Amino acid sequence: MTEELQTDPGEVRQIYDPVAETPTSYLREPEGVHPPLDYPPYKSTSLRHPKQPLVYLPQTITEITGPRLGSPEVGETDNDLTVQHGGEPLGERIIVSGRVFDTEGKPLRGTLVEIWQANSAGRYKHRWDRWPAPLDPNFSGAGRCVTDDEGRYQFTTIKPGPYPWGNHYNAWRPAHIHFSLLGRAFTQRLVTQMYFPGDPFFPYDPIFNSVRDATARERMISSFSIHGTVPNWAQAFEWDIYLRGPGATPFEEAH
Amino acid sequence: MIFDTTPSQTVGPYFAIGLPYELGPFAVPEGTPGAIHISGTIYDGAGEPIPDFLLETWQADPEGKFADMHGYGGPSELPDFRGFARYGVEDGDGTYDILTVKPGPVPDLAGTAQAPHIDVSVFARGMLHRCVTRIYFADEAEANAADPALARVPLERRATLLAEPRAGGYRFDIRFQGPGETVFFAV
């Protein structure tokens, strides 16, 4: 029972209201979509991954429901990281926008999107970040918003800089923005990072390359948009995010 | 057309800039009748407490109802029940503490009653994807024995999923490796 990931889901039948908008189960993601928990090139994984195989958990109502955090927690200007202080932060002003979909291409409306990032010099406003790049008194680096009826989110921020870290000799993280998505269900919860096109550090970054499939890695890279770019104001980058959608259980597929 | 999901990446060392919030650790408001603390320590593979982690929980109320039922019946009637807690710490002593109520039994999708449980996600630097586990309760022996998810867990490892009663609530530790490694689930 402990030798390998159990893929036998047992029997599952639908007993809930078929017109309900929530699926009775979510897609099981094939191996390789997400990075492995044990990935030696990223050294911190070594003591922070389970050694025993994961146990297959049949999805129940606990997994197909989830919290809806929203309006009370999110302020009007929480999606503009350039207006959180008395002055303008330094760096390239950018607009980052996109849509949140499930894997069937249905937009997820009303879902919380939270971001955090380094400033334009690649420094986080965090006491553990001590490398000698300047802090920006006008930039905290956190934002949040709730997707609209089309699943759209938008942030105005500053393009983050790359920064060094201690994983290996001359290790630098490609510029990135951290994203956290609640989705609509516990199964859809995702924390990831958005990267910028053409970053020279891509080939050397074990975190980016922990996603072993090259086309899957591409899904973490935003694209520059001249159409979204606002004249005399801000460059635009677009990035769509796909969360798990409805998926038949393997039992149902067998029919 | 079926699209592929966006891959997971680590929450990294600096998530405290963006994710923890004041009410995060409160799945129920303070003063809720029957409120309990669930707390514990998270240990890494060397047996050391993990100083930086983000833990999230999702659960039903004592009636087995969630704050949002997504159409599967009426939602929780417990006033201001959130059922969701987020505890984030950047340089702590490895411990977490959330305020909640003990969940009641909820059915699984085949209609079988599940023992009271809380879904848990752990995120941290060094975790490229979240680790999911479930909190069950050691004082629910009968319900636990009939629980369809626990039934999938090797008998000798089930105790790692049991929160132990203590004054004011329960203790639930999480161990990533070694003796007593917590059972983690693929959802």
Short description:
The complex is a heterodimer of chains A (255) and B (187). By secondary structure, chain A is mainly β.
How would you explain this protein's 3D organization?
The complex is a heterodimer of chains A (255) and B (187). Chain A has 4 helices and 12 strands. By secondary structure, chain A is mainly β. Chain A has one domain (66-245): Sandwich (Protocatechuate 3,4-Dioxygenase, subunit A), CATH 2.60.130.10. In chain A, strands 2, 5, 10, 11 and 12 form a 5-stranded mixed sheet that branches. A 4-stranded antiparallel sheet of chain A has the order 4-3-8-9, with no helix packed on it. Chain A is globular and about 50 Å long. With 187 residues, chain B is mainly β. Chain B has one domain: Aromatic compound dioxygenase (Protocatechuate 3,4-Dioxygenase, subunit A), CATH 2.60.130.10. In chain B, 3% of the residues lie in helices and 30% in strands. Chain B is built from 1 helix and 12 strands. Chain B has one helix spanning 141-145, and strands at residues 36-43, 53-59, 84-89, 95-100, 106-107, 113-114, 118-123, 131-137, 162-166, 169-171, 174-175, 185-186. In chain B, strands 1, 2, 3, 4, 7, 8, 9, 10 and 11 form a 9-stranded mixed sheet that branches. In chain B, strands 5-6 form a two-stranded antiparallel sheet. In chain B, β8 (131-137), α1 (141-145) and β9 form a beta-alpha-beta unit. The model of chain B has no long low-confidence stretch (mean pLDDT 95).
